[in-house]
Amino acid sequence: MAAIRKDRQAGFGLVELMIAITLGILLSTAVIQVFLATNSSSKIQDSMAVIQENARFAMRFLSREIRMAGYMGCSSVGAAEFNNIAEPASEVDFSPATALVGVDNVVSGNALNAVVGTDTVRLKRASDEFLTITGNYAPDNANIQVEDNDIGFVKGDYVMVSDCASADVFRITNNPKEAGKGKATFTHANGSNSDNRLSKIYTGEAEVFGFETIDFFIRDTGRKSSGGNPVNALFIQQRGVGTGGVTPAPVELVEGVENMQLSYGVDNNGDLAVDAYQTAAAVADWSTVLSVRIQLTLYGLEDNVVGQDGSVNAQQLVDRDGVAVANNDGRLRQVFTNVFAIRNKMQ
User: Fold this and answer.
1) Which residues pair with 242 in a beta bridge?
2) pLDDT digits 0-9 by tens, 216-233
3) Cβ-contact 293, 264 below 8 angstroms
4) Measured between alpha carbons, how far is residue 199 from residues 8, 167, 178, 188 in Å?
5) Which of 214, 213, 169, 210 is CA-nearest to residue 192?
6) What's the rounded Cα separation, in Å, for the pair 120 and 103?
7) Buried b (16+ CB within 10 A) or exposed e, 223-261
8) DSSP notation for 137-156
9) How many CB atoms lie within 10 A of CB 59?
10) For residue 231, how far is the Cα from the chain centroid?
11) Distance CA 257, CA 266 (A)
12) Contact of 97 with 69, CB cutoff 8 Å
């Protein structure tokens, strides 16, 4: 009878086990590295998308308002006779020298509570919406009338009346009818005005605007980034129709705007062409400013997306002057620059 052969099964040896473990560790390490790289890339792309979208909105908003500085209906600041009876007169100082004025590198305790070292700019203009005078054309009337107060003027508002050749600004001293309630009267009596008469008789061709004063600046929102760092934003403070002549609280426009630096295109020889760009501190005559060059520095809201200053993978970023932009929190940053002409000062 033949003997039955039994094969014995052998398991992994120690060497084979160590090789398997080593290969597993190497594979796991590779997978983790790929994951970390993908995660880091995703964070950078997300931050970049947010930064670029915020920059587009901020530039679009700033460009529109800066181009409209000095607007007064069918005429432009300096091109029409201007008379102001509103009190206090300093609030409606409107000329080519005051239609747009900036402040360079604000200090602590500034009136706007803007971030120290950033720039601010103030502009003045007539409102987008307007009404048409429909009554009280006689020279002895201390008021004007419109068909309907459908843009919402209230007592205390600063009002501009313009007919292309002339413009007057006054404050409303009565409580005009609300929108949709029919013919409204805007009285300009003494008290809130230095006189109760305008400089001329305005007829049905004249337009009635709100007189607006607008400030743009950078302020700390009080919110924090994912790592607990402050979040700055671009703010607007706008006094116009419906405010009663009182400057309202500022409104946040775009978050993640770390800095705003402005320079101004100056016409030194009166040929309506920019000869040089200067900071606000260097501008001697604001009536010669024809354009504004804006530099915005924006950051993402997530920390440690890129390397901080001094690290191997630190983000290398410079502003328009070639100065390195500091990065002490690892947030992705980008600098945006654009130039906008002040249309109402180039006619």
Assistant:
1) none
2) 999 999 999 888 999 999
3) yes
4) 116, 8, 27, 12
5) 169
6) 5
7) eebeeeeebbbbbbbbbbbebebeeeebeebbbbbbbbb
8) -STT-SEEEES--TT---TT
9) 17
10) 16
11) 26
12) no
Q: Which residue(s) pair with 243 in the sheet?
A: none
| Mean pLDDT score of the chain | 89
With tokens 């002040």, the residue in question is 342
28: amino acid identity, one letter: S
CB atoms within 10 A of CB 175: 12
Strands (E), 172-283: 184-187, 207-224, 230-239, 251-255, 257-266, 276-278
pLDDT in tens, 113-155: 999 999 999 999 999 999 999 877 776 678 999 999 999 999 9
Burial of 306 (0-12, 13-18, 19+ CB in 10 A): buried
SS3 label, residue 167: strand
The length of the chain is 347
23, amino acid identity: L
Q: How far apart are CA 226 and CA 107, in angstroms?
A: 28
Distance (Å, whole) CA 73 – CA 177? 24
User: The whole model's pTM is what?
Assistant: 0.86
Main-chain phi, psi angles of 50, to 5 degrees:
-65, -45
Closest CA to 321 of 341, 337, 340: 337
Structure tokens that stand for 117 in this block: 């070292």
**DSSP secondary structure code for residue 89 in this structure:** G
DSSP state of 4: P
In sequence order, the β-bridge partners of residue 339 are 293
- Among 36-40, 256-260, 299-303, the range scoring the smallest mean pLDDT is 36-40
Measure the CA–CA gap between 151 and 160, rounded to whole angstroms. 14
Higher pLDDT, 227 or 280: 280
Domain ranges of the chain: 47-345
